[in-house]
């Protein structure tokens, strides 16, 4: 299983019951005419909305048109992508976690960002109140060095060596290698893949708060991990 989630931060004060009410009433329709002249009604809406003590969850459903070539003809097919999301209160901050649908493939990044911007417009009538989050290099470094034997892969960026954009280390005992120490002098940790031993899962975490699950787990357990272990790392 490869399942990515992206974390955004809501930069406005919100009230979760108000958020739930605003999202509950959201529905948009768009008329689309296919190459064959057929008229389709494409719908965006929020389903399965739930309000908890410090959490609002739901599924953002959006209709798309996918095109493919069949016998030199363009075939357009309507599809629906469903993107689960959670709005979580953590201390005095609010975060939006968006889970990319497993069928989205190239649409993953597009859909997570789209959902964040659309929810921002629904709640605040403007798109720039839900922003990308960041985990500082120092915290990713500490995360790795707290249990280096669990780390499987590290990517570095912001490299100051001319002509080099990224560097990668893979394998066991990464911290003990001279290359690890050398790469730290020339760049910052951008991406770490490691085993969360107490949960029995393998995840990858980027500086810009994309968390990817690489092993078997329920969505509930994965999202709980993100809320409990990753949110405290965010700057």
Structure report:
By secondary structure, this protein is an alpha+beta fold. The chain folds into two domains: 3-132, Alpha-D-Glucose-1,6-Bisphosphate, Chain A, domain 4, CATH 3.30.530; 137-207, no CATH class. The chain has five helices and twelve strands. Strands 1, 2, 3, 4, 5, 6, 7, 8, 9, 10, 11 and 12 form a twelve-stranded antiparallel sheet that branches. The longest helix has 17 residues, at 108-124. The chain is globular. The relative contact order is 0.17.
Mean of residue pLDDT values: 91
What fraction, in percent, of the residue positions are helical?
A: 10-25%
Number of helices: 5
Structural class: alpha+beta
Residue fraction in strands: 35-45%
Shape summary? globular
What characteristics describe this protein?
Alpha-D-Glucose-1,6-Bisphosphate, Chain A, domain 4, globular, alpha+beta, 235 residues, twelve-stranded antiparallel beta sheet
Summarize the structure.
The protein has 235 residues and is α+β, with helices and mostly antiparallel strands.
Topology summary:
Elements lengths: L2 E8 L5 H9 L2 E7 L5 E13 L3 E16 L2 E18 L2 E7 L8 H17 L5 E3 L4 H9 L5 E7 L9 E4 L7 H9 L1 E9 L4 E6 L3 E4 L5 H12 L5
Antiparallel strand pairs: 1-6, 1-7, 1-12, 2-3, 3-4, 4-5, 5-6, 8-9, 8-10, 10-11, 11-12
